[in-house]
Specification:
Oligomer: single chain
Strand order of the largest sheet: 3-4-7
Helix content: 40-55%
Distance between the termini: 74 Å
Mean pLDDT: 96
Largest sheet: 3 strands, antiparallel
Strand content: 5-15%
Shape: elongated
Low-confidence stretches: none
Bound molecules: glutamic acid
CATH architecture of the largest domain: Alpha-Beta Complex
Number of domains: 4
CATH class of the largest domain: Alpha Beta
């Protein structure tokens, strides 16, 4: 147990669809919070107004809610640490940036974009094609380290555009303990003098993340590996602001990698390989472009988070299927791997199939009903109660229910004749004609009676029942799929069965 109440945060920028890597970061935060009876905070990091996208914040909340990992505090559920949107906290940051200048850990910089461009042009070499603003270059620029005090005062009082930059020390080792990676060390001179406060008075991410993690009493800061290079700046800020004792414990989660090749899985990979990378459908408000999500693709949220948790984590026992409660119980940050995890859509579908299989009819029924409705099929609850248990084993995605169930409601539009015709002959045709007659007089319309009739007709015709089962199936459902064929006949009823056999005979005989 932790001495202090555990508080973790998921801190996305509202810039578009929520990538599954982001959902996994949120999930690991959630699991850690719940395991430690702590609080899971959502903080919206919207300081970069040029990247702000309308609707993205609500979308993030909707995605987390669908996943069953809704944050305990956030803009949607304010607690005592609000506001939870950084744009609404603007006034808080400035004084800390100024305090850093006063203490000599940061400085005002007045360079225009042209000045910066000029510096890069002048100093670039083959080894260093893009020189940074750092300990090597800062003394050549217009800032409060190079200008006189009067000059600086004058520029500030005349509101000349300026930023505040951190003054990275030279030759210092900056170390911290990462809960996954252990001791991590950076050489300070390799890090540039990052902007902390922008010309518009907004903080950059680097300042805001530290000020807010402190103000919100975050005990553990977990985020993706892509933020590891920023860690030395953050560690120094914790120190410079005098908060080192309150610094959270860090963990940087491994990347989710492309299924083929190297590098981080991107939306483009999903488009290219035909799978979603966003949790839910995302419609870009500017371009109206719609990007498919796991939800709409037919994933159960339980399967989605189970799959995500196992991308980079396991409990060491080889167990793969976990409910959310089991994840909470078994989760530990220390068991997250250092190396990136390759995303595998086939495996994701396997998780979903396993979850569909073990879901109750009661749970699946409303989802399937809505799905069928959107495909123009009005299914009664009674019929769904019978057919869902028969078909669920065959569905990888919820949407597969449409194909698996349509024939219970409508006769197939097309029959897979190619699978029947090579072996179709008069004896089979005669068998089906007799079978139809036999069905007319069976005592009760049940799968057992239908099967008995099928077998006895086959025996009279000296035909193997196995040779006529496939044609029968194709007559009823159109293809080589579906649950046991006599069960299908029992459910669709006598009239439909006879009609489908008649139609099948007609199709196969005339071909
Ligand atoms: N705003 C950052 C992001 O978009 C958060 C990084 C962090 O958690 O420190 O991922």
């Amino acid at each position: 147990m932790h001495p202090q109440p555990v508080r973790v945060r998921f801190a996305p920028s509202p810039t578009g669809g929520l990538h599954l890597g982001g959902v996994r970061t949120a999930l690991f935060n959630y699991l850690f919070a719940k395991k430690n009876h702590g609080t899971f905070v959502l903080r919206i990091e919207d300081t970069d107004q040029t990247r702000y996208v309308q609707g993205a914040e609500q979308y993030i909340i909707d995605c987390l809610t669908w996943c069953g990992i809704a944050p305990d505090e956030g803009p949607h559920r304010p607690g005592k640490f609000g506001p939870y949107r950084q744009s609404e906290r603007k006034e808080i940051y400035k004084k800390f940036a100024e305090e850093l200048v006063e203490k000599g850990f940061a400085y005002y910089a007045f360079d225009t974009p042209e000045d910066l461009e000029k510096m890069r042009e002048e100093l670039k070499t083959e080894q260093n094609p893009s020189p940074q603003y750092n300990h090597l270059t800062r003394m050549k620029m217009s800032n409060s380290l190079t200008l006189s005090n009067e000059e600086v005062k004058e520029r500030l009082s005349s509101n000349q555009a300026h930023v505040i930059r951190i003054k990275m020390p030279e030759n210092r080792e900056i170390s911290f303990t990462d809960m996954i990676r252990g001791e991590v060390t950076f050489q300070s001179q390799l890090v540039d003098d990052k902007v902390l406060l922008k010309a518009d008075g907004m903080p950059t991410y680097h300042l805001a993340v530290v000020v807010d993690d402190h103000a919100m009493e975050i005990t553990h800061a977990f985020r993706g590996e892509e933020w590891l290079p920023s860690a030395p700046v953050h560690i120094l800020l914790w120190e410079y602001l005098g908060w080192k004792d309150a610094m959270p414990q860090w963990a940087h989660f491994p990347l989710i990698l492309k299924p083929d090749g190297q590098g981080k899985l991107s939306k483009r990979d999903g488009d290219r390989l035909g799978f979603p990378v966003f949790a839910m459908d995302w419609k870009d408000p500017k371009s109206d472009e719609l990007t498919k999500g796991f939800k709409e693709m037919g994933f159960l949220p339980e399967a989605f988070i189970n799959m995500l948790a196992l991308l980079g984590w396991n409990d060491g026992s080889g167990k793969e299927l976990f409910t959310k409660e089991e994840l909470v119980e078994h989760f530990s940050v220390e068991r997250i791997h250092k190396a990136g995890a390759k995303f595998d859509f086939e495996k994701a579908k396997w998780y979903n199939q396993e979850w569909i299989k073990t879901s109750t009819t009661e749970k699946l029924l409303p989802l399937v009903k809505t799905l069928l409705q959107s495909n123009g099929i009005e299914a009664t609850t009674e019929l769904l109660e019978k057919t869902i248990p028969l078909t669920k084993e065959r569905c990888h995605l919820l949407n597969d229910f449409v194909g698996q169930l349509t024939y219970f409601f409508n006769a197939p539009k097309e029959l897979d004749s190619a699978s029947v015709l090579p072996k179709w002959d008069a004896s089979k045709s005669n068998f089906f004609s007799s079978f139809m007659q036999g069905l007319e007089s069976i005592p009760e319309w049940t799968n057992v009676e239908i099967e008995n009739c099928f077998k006895s007709t086959a025996s009279t015709h000296e035909i193997k029942p196995g040779d006529v089962q496939l044609p029968f199936r194709i007559m009823l459902v159109g293809g080589k799929f579906g649950p046991p064929v006599f069960e299908i006949a029992a459910i669709i009823g006598k009239e439909s069965t006879l009609e489908r056999i008649k139609n099948g005979l007609h199709t196969f005989n005339k071909a």
